[in-house]
Amino acid sequence: MRVLVVLLIVSIDSLPAAAQSEDSWTRAQALEPGSEILLTVARTQPVQRYVVAIDDNSLRVLNLADSSLPGPLAETLRSIASEHPEYFARAASNGTVVVGRVRLTKTGMFVGNDQVADLQRLVETHARPDVSEIARRRRGRGFWGHLGPLGGFFVGGMVGGLVSGVACRAVSGRDRCDTGAFLIGMVAGGVAGGTYGGYAPRRETEEIVYRATLGTR
Fold first, then answer.
1. How far apart are the first and last CA of the chain?
2. Least reliable range by pLDDT among 13-22, 23-32, 75-84, 183-192
3. Could you tell me if 28 and 122 lie in one domain?
4. Residue 147 included in any domain
5. CA-CA distance, 52 to 10, in Å (whole number)?
6. Is 187 contained in some domain?
7. What pLDDT is recorded for position 50?
8. pLDDT of residue 63
9. Which residue among 61, 115, 179, 214 is least enclosed by CB atoms within 10 Å?
10. CA angle, 53 as apex, 127 and 55 as ends, to 5°?
11. Residues 149 and 126 in one domain
12. Helix or strand or coil: residue 106?
């Protein structure tokens, strides 16, 4: 079994960088329109963006970082990105898209007759070679995230009791340890496990979806 694992690791590491990057880019293409991502382009710092479209050669994202954009309008744009991402391409191709009081054209985003944003600043297009990394935040992942408070209490209690019992026997000897050590460890472990089990589902972690390799840049 260990030999198979080692062979598998070696075979993965021996894959060409372009092949690994290709597989990673395929995962990025599976992201749903409107998905929130952390995007790193070239040598810049990661920025928050929303997926509009990803094809084999480029990434199109929605930039809602402009603080002057009112919250309701930002939500409208994100809704368009999620439900009708093709609207942005239509507007960029000299089309006009009307959603409620919002109008998208090649020149920008309008509410009534007032232009509130430049379409080229709202929708960014990045060539694939320029994209260094795509990540996303996930909540409640991992073992403890699935257990929750109740499951965390039972698992933590069992582990705490076993560890406490083993530690007591190692220090004091088998004959001097009774169920008291197990019970103390079970209570302490249960409280700790339940607390972390309640926290874990709300904890956010960062998942790397795509990372360019040196061989692809």
1. 36
2. 13-22
3. yes
4. yes
5. 37
6. yes
7. 96
8. 94
9. 214
10. 55
11. no
12. coil
Answer for the pair 160, 185: CB distance below 8 angstroms, yes or no.
Answer: yes
Q: How confident is the model at residue 70 (pLDDT cuts 50, 70, 90)?
A: confident
- The verdict on 90 and 27 lying in the same domain is yes
Residue the block writes with tokens 């089309």: 95
1 belongs to a structural domain: no
- Does residue 102 have a pLDDT over 50? yes
What are the pLDDT digits (tens) for 14-26?
444 444 455 789 9
Query: At a CB cut-off of 8 Å and minimum separation 6, what does 204 contact?
Result: 137, 138, 139
DSSP helix/strand/coil, 117: strand
Number of domains the chain is built from: 2
Question: In terms of domains, do 54 and 126 share one?
Answer: yes
Cα 55 to chain centroid, rounded: 20
Listed residues 137, 169, 191: the one ending a domain: 137
Is the sign of the CA dihedral 193, 194, 199, 202 positive or negative? Answer: positive
* CA-angle at 15, arms to 12 and 20, nearest 5°: 90
**Is this prediction's pTM over 0.85?**
no
In whole angstroms, what is the distance from residue 152 CA to residue 14 CA?
Answer: 40
Whether 34 and 62 map to the same domain: the answer is: yes
